[in-house]
Amino acid sequence: SALVELRDVWVEYGDKIVLERVSLQLAEGGFVAVVGPSGAGKSTFLRLILGQEAPTRGKVLLGGTPMRAECGPDRGVVFQRYSVFPHLTALQNVLFGIECAGAPLIARLFGARRREARDTAAAMLAAVGLEHSLHVYPAQMSGGMQQRLAIAQALVKHPRVLLLDEPFGALDPGIRLDMHALITRLWQEHGLTILMVTHDIGEAFKLGTRVLAFDKRRHDPHAPHRYGATVT
Ligand code: ADP
Ligand code: ADP
């Protein structure tokens, strides 16, 4: 059965329809690329799956149960920029990823549990090639390193779904290729399900096992709703 399922989902803001009648099933282990013009509803779609937003109508299910709010252990997210905390070192950022995934209000870990968490965080940083940057702050890192850090923070809690919102859009082409290799390896090694929004069609077809195209559809200009996304 599907890991993520949308059943007849609508998202409306006032009289503006952003998502209209979207039904889809995403299989576990897939790498789904989401493309479409600006304003087509791609970020809204990710927010639904993060549980940051509820549909106006319809259902959003994760593993067959209704989506809950974010910061659960089952979803990790990386944005184009600012996914990590500037006042925390690389290690502290990834530790935050672990603590956030724990039981509510266990804000800090102590003693043996903290040492264990530190080892886990350091291993995750090594997995993204940041083993020599544990105590470095994001401001001292290149864009590519910051995105590696963001990926480590998102993955350290072993989420079932990794959501990537234009994760490589701000990087130089050469660095982007390195990141493609990294994310493909992590996807395979961790048996992840990935949902990635991208403006780069080449990237979508290179990385995705499935490509979802969001379309900003124009309705009759005299009708009350002029926009609505359809998914193909
Ligand atoms: P992108 O197309 O790069 O994903 P955004 O999603 O940031 O851009 O924004 C697209 C449009 O959505 C912008 O015109 C912005 O003003 C509008 N928008 C985004 N979030 C909100 C919001 N919370 N309330 C009203 N409008 C919003
Ligand atoms: P995309 O990510 O594809 O650029 P978005 O999901 O950001 O598209 O936005 C889709 C449409 O929804 C846009 O027209 C945007 O202005 C609108 N929108 C997004 N969030 C809000 C909001 N909170 N309030 C009102 N309009 C919004």
From TrEMBL:
Signal peptide: none annotated. Pfam families: ABC_tran (PF00005). Transmembrane segments: none annotated. GO terms for molecular function: ATP binding. SMART domains: AAA. Residues 4-232 form the ABC transporter domain. Coiled coil: none annotated. Keywords: ATP-binding, Nucleotide-binding, Transport. The keyword Nucleotide-binding applies. The keyword Nucleotidyltransferase does not apply. It comes from the Bacteria. This is ABC transporter ATP-binding protein. It comes from Sphingomonas citri.
